[in-house]
Amino acid sequence: MELQLKGSVIVLTLNSTNNGVTSGWEEGKYYSEEAEVDRRDPGRDYELYKYTCQELQRLMAEIQDLKSRGGKDAAVEIEDRRIQSCVHFMILKKLNRLAHIRLKKGRDQTHEAKQKVDAYHLQLQNLLYEVMHLQKEITKCLEFKSKHEEIDLVSLEEFYKEAPPDISKAEVTMGDPHQQTLARLDWELEQRKRLAEKYRECLSNKEKILKEIEVKKEYLSSLQPRLNSIMQASLPVQEYLFMPFDQAHKQYETARHLPPPLYVLFVQTTAYGQACAHMKSSQPPRQDKTLSVAIEGSVDEAKALFKPPEDSQDDESDSDAEEEQTTKRRRPTLGVQLDDKRKEMLKRHPLSVMLDLKCKDDSVLHLTFYYLMNLNIMTVKAKVTTATELITPISAGDLLSPDSVLSCLYPGDHGKKTPNPANQYQFDKVGILTLRDYVLDLGHPYLWVQKLGGLHFPKEQPQHTVIADHSLSASHMETTMKLLKTRVQSRLALHKQFASLEHGIVPVTSDCQYLFPAKVVSRLVKWVSIAHEDYTELHFTKDIVEAGLAGDTNLYYMALVERGTESDACSSPSSGKGCHSQDVKYRTLLPLCSPCTHLGGIESCDSSQLSWHLIGQGFLLEPPRCCLWCCHPAPALAAKLQAAVVLNPGYSSIPPVFQLCLNWKGEKTNNNDDNIRAMESEVNVCYKELCGPRPSHQLLTNQLQRLCVLLDVYLETESHDDSVEGPKEFPQEKMCLRLFRGPSRMKPFKYNHPQGFFSHR
Amino acid sequence: MVTFQAHDGPVYSMVSTDRHLLSAGDGEVKAWLWAEILKKGCKELWRRQPPYRTSLEVPEINALLLVPKENSLILAGGDCQLHTMDLETGTFTRALWGHTDYIHCLALRERSPEVLSGGEDGAVRLWDLRTAKEVQTIEVYKHEECSRPHNGRWIGCLATDSDWMVCGGGPALTLWHLRSSTPTTIFPMRAPQKHVTFYQDLILSAGQGRCVNQWQLSGELKAQVPGSSPGLLSLSLNQQPAAPECKVLTAAGNSCRVDVFTNLGYRAFSLSF
């Protein structure tokens, strides 16, 4: 291979010399094909390449020709030709290398040129950016706005007219808008400085005036105590002359702050009180006043209500803020918020009117009238004080309680429902079911209270606006006042009566004594108040409940009348004289042939029995009988008469209703015993006989006493069971014309006074 | 409805003739014309008072009884006597006396002119109207079978049918055979009965308690039909042969209602006053 390579180089050199080209072979001692490339012409190399290829083709064709002919000398010839073709191959190789070198060189040159172009491009880009930035800056500058443009300046004509020439400088500024603007700004500054000066002056002026006012006020307030002392000094004079101008004046002053309904009430009650005093006045007026009016409560709070609404709004927002805080702190439930709303709705006016009504026995009814601002209704609280201290019986608990003392003053007016129909809508909003639950706190909204305050609520028009009306109040004043008085008096009378009823004593006044026989054996042993529910659950009160007479505004009592117990054997519980030994207990009636012969031997026989004898001899149908003490111990069955009493709040103009149940030999009520029915009618229907002297405060006690008498009659006239040995359980002591009468076998319940006998009604 | 005031006190008894309504209460019997009542007039036709012996208290008239055969009226009540009044002349013809206490009820025996009376004294007496004498006395409370001392001895109701008589009150409701004057059936009813009547082969009775009781003659309780009053005082059967379709029983007691039974089985309706 090395040989071949050396040979080709030689050939090439030869060829090159042959071609007449000066080679570096002789000049440089080294051989470098790269340098050779620069020296050689590519076109010539191309010609050489073409020639070599033709030569090779010719040689190949000759070899082929020789081979096909075949001959002895052919082999030499072929060898010769092969050598020639080898040389040509050498040349081709050389040419190929040269071509490669040339290509590489070309590439290098191209690369270099490209790098240069890139650098130039980058420079161009940078320059373009810079240009753009500068342009932006320029536009920014062009768009700049000065502060002075916002200032309102006086118009151009005004400026030239008013500004002094040293500021306006008309000759300079007329042409130059910039200078003109500067001048106008100068003028503006000048003007503003002047105004500020003026403001300061005004302030100092105001300060001065305020100080003056202060001084004058001090003077005025110093005047007030002096005036007061003068007034104080004049009081004795006024009193001496009976001219209570001062007090009245003060009240009227406060009355100005009353809400309209309370104002109407105040004016009307004052007027009524004065009228009453004048009517009675043989003495100087206002000395014996039965009716006094006063205003209570804080006037300042009332005034505060009429302050401008901003304050209240502030308050509200404050409270709102507080509420918000509280919500953050403890998250109140919806119920708490509702409670607040309810409280707001049921708010009372801070002022109230106190009315003191004095009765004849020096007991006083204190009425306090309130006005519920948001509901537009009036309420009243009542209290009764008496001249002497009262012992309160247990059963009288409700009689004078503020809750019920005025209940149903007019029929059906129980004061537990709001009289204003519009209120129901308001209640719905805050979830109040009825006013009933709040009545204890607020007082009762009786209808008559609304009328006294001049408020009239029509039933059918819920949204009617209600205005306080003087004439309405005046028309109801007198009757209401009278009703109030009678109510208090009857309640006080009941109160006293209950105290003795609880001790089993039925108080009968001397002017009612004629209604009853002298001797009444049955006794009241129990008097208790019972609840409405208990009353309705009693088995013998069904008729009353069904008739609708047992409303929950009534008061209910249970009386127990007894006869036939141990203590009853003696003629009265207080006197034990009749009994000498345990055996001597029971009395009996024995028919006697000759009247009064045995009386001398009888130990105790009271005057009523004696008188009975005398009358009996006169005209009685039955043979006269005499009372004897009997020594036989007989079984005594206590007869117990339960009486359920409905006491209408309007007592005593509306009578109490009694329902009876007798426990004696079985249970007897009006359902199974006509005589019990008759007894009920005696106390319930014939109550007019029992009223006593007006104003008939004795009715209830008389009815109870009557009941005792009726029980006596019932028991004593009961037909005697002949089959049982021994005396009658309840000997007949009452004088009766006949024991039974009519188909229903009525007993003689009617008492005839002067004669003292019992007959049928 | 026509209402008019007949007496000052309660009306204890009413009977009706063809033309008149007779009512009695306290001491007096009054007559009213039906024709005028129907015209809503209420003029009193006449009034009569039997001759009473006492003046202290006017005795009540508890029972009226018409005797059609002799056109007379028998009154009985508080003065323990039976008074006979001639309806033609309006005069009192006889007084039958023998009761020791007041008379509750009367009953007429249809065939013979005899009258039964029952009173507070516990006796049922049989009177012959022709001789005006007491024929027979049954002291009911003395018979142990029917005596109930705790209720008293009074006879409150009485009814008769030929030889039979039923009576009740303080003693138990009892069926008697008159000729032999023996109790045959005792009806087991505790409450005192105030009215009793024969109806076909039944006995209807009412008294204390809400029910009208229907008895077989043998003493079995056939039915008790409740009314609306807590206690019944009077039963009345309309048996006019002229109007068989108007056959109704009415019952009145101590309430404001009169119960009407068109069928004996149940109360049809009540008239409320």
Query: Segments of chain B where pLDDT lies below 50 for 5+ residues?
Result: none
CATH superfamily of the largest domain in chain B: YVTN repeat-like/Quinoprotein amine dehydrogenase
- Please state the average pLDDT score of chain B: 88
Given the helix and strand composition of chain A, which structural class is it? alpha+beta
Give me the CATH architecture of the largest domain in chain B, please. 7 Propeller
Mean pLDDT across the residues of chain A is 76
Could you give the order of strands across the largest sheet of chain A? 5-6-9-10-11
Largest sheet of chain B: 4 strands, antiparallel
Can you tell me the number of structural domains of chain A? 4
What distance lies between the first and last C-alpha atoms of chain B, to the nearest angstrom? Answer: 10 Å
Characterize the overall form of chain B. Answer: globular
Q: Which assembly state applies to the chains in this document?
A: heterodimer
In whole angstroms, the N-to-C terminal distance of chain A is 177 Å
Order of the strands making up the biggest sheet of chain B: 1-2-3-4
What is the number of independent domains of chain B?
A: 2
Instruction: Please report the first level of CATH classification, the CATH class of the largest domain in chain B.
Output: Mainly Beta
Counting DSSP E segments of at least 2 residues, the number of strands of chain B comes to: 24
Number of helices of chain A: 23
Predict the CATH topology of the largest domain in chain B. Methylamine Dehydrogenase, Chain H
User: What is the ordering of alpha helices and beta strands of chain B?
Assistant: EEEHEEEEEEEEEEEEEEEEEEEEE
CA radius of gyration of chain B: 18 Å
